[in-house]
Amino acid sequence: MAVSGNLATFRLPPLPTIGDIIKLFNLRAERQLSQNFLLDLRLTDKIVRKAGKLRDAYVLEVGPGPGGITRSILNADITKLLVVEKDTRFIPGLKMLEEAAPGKIQIVHGDILTYKVEKAFPKSLRKNWENDPPDVHIIGNLPFSVSTHLIIKWLENVASRDGPFTYGRTQMTLTFQKEVAERLSASTGSRQRSRLSIMAQYLCNVQNCFTIPGRAFVPKPKVDVGVVHFTPLINPQIEQPFKLVEKVVQSVFQFRRKYCHRGVAILFPEAERLQRTEEMLMRADVDPTLRPYELSIPQFKSLCDVYRGLCEENSALFPYNFREELRQKKMMKRSRKYIDEEDEEEEEEEEEEEENI
Ligand SMILES: C[S@@+](CC[C@H](N)C(=O)[O-])C[C@H]1O[C@@H](n2cnc3c(N)ncnc32)[C@H](O)[C@@H]1O
């Protein structure tokens, strides 16, 4: 079935199956690169349907591998598909698709972590942030380590409206380890609520679309996989710099099961910790005995706004790093121990010398 419905006009001609492509080009999955392939084209069609309306769109697919999702995207009657693949072994198989869909696909052998998405598509596709999302989509089934790293990078790009978001509110449909997908979309108070939930949801509408059981992949990964769709919000729920939000959220979630005042406290140097923590929670109107996962995004917004004010009053506050203070304290303690031990040794030596006299 064509993924974009009855109106689709382009269909790939009959091709060898993905399984045949894997055999033909000897594409053994590299376990150390966490490669797991999707062979079932009904599932790849389902992922692509979750991306939304792709007719006439420009699509970036990250990590196409043997090309299952790639075929579903091409069958969605897109205008242009750009695939970025790091592993050269997949390029000949992708070239076969290029021949089957002339002019539709551009293959880039490269690393998505460094690839400049802002240069990938024509400038004419750019839309104002306040308008509907542009006809630019990102789709990908990447190794879990890469997708988590990448979504944090891309969320920062959403905040600064650069990278893939120079085109406007570019939508993304990406796979994650099921637990990470659940964290990304977790609501206030839920067991999965975490740093990732706040960082993703203050910037995007996040939808955990469906779960693919691990057994659908070849080779089978140890975990199930979640497909997540992101649409950047017109107005971020927290209007502060990404790094500031990241610092507040990271600190608050430092002690996930403790009262939130414990995490807020590590934003401040020891000397003023108690007083500033009390002041920040009071000014933000946040109950200090809530657990981090019980805090709503508006409450994180209040915390970030108050912290921003405190940073403006004291320029040394934002650079303050709790871990660095802890490390220095430990070093001081260790050198103190050496000095004390050396003092003891010297005293003993002096006593011995006195006895010798
Ligand atoms: C989990 S496999 C999925 C392959 C294919 N999309 C599928 O669903 O069957 C991940 C793919 O991403 C590629 N990949 C891994 N890291 C990458 C990176 N940094 N940039 C581009 N591609 C990458 C791998 O070589 C592999 O082809």
From TrEMBL:
Subcellular localization, as worded in the UniProt entry: Mitochondrion
Ribosomal RNA adenine methylase transferase N-terminal domain boundaries: 43-234
SUPFAM superfamilies per UniProt: S-adenosyl-L-methionine-dependent methyltransferases
InterPro entries, A to Z: KsgA/Erm, rRNA_Ade_diMease-like_C, rRNA_Ade_Mease_Trfase_CS, rRNA_Ade_methylase_Trfase_N, rRNA_adenine_dimethylase, SAM-dependent_MTases_sf
Stretch list, region Disordered: 334-357
Binding site for S-adenosyl-L-methionine: 36, 38, 63, 85, 111, 141
Keyword RNA-binding attributed: yes
Pfam families for this protein: RrnaAD
Assigned EC number: 2.1.1.-
One GO MF term attached to the UniProt entry: mitochondrial transcription factor activity
Protein keywords: DNA-binding, Methyltransferase, Mitochondrion, RNA-binding, rRNA processing, S-adenosyl-L-methionine, Transcription, Transcription regulation, Transferase, Transit peptide
GO BP terms, alphabetized: transcription initiation at mitochondrial promoter
GO cellular component: mitochondrial matrix
Comp. bias intervals (Acidic residues): 340-357
Family: Belongs to the class I-like SAM-binding methyltransferase superfamily. rRNA adenine N(6)-methyltransferase family. KsgA subfamily.
Protein name: rRNA adenine N(6)-methyltransferase
Source species of the chain: Microcaecilia unicolor
Lineage of producing organism: Eukaryota, Metazoa, Chordata, Craniata, Vertebrata
Gene: TFB1M
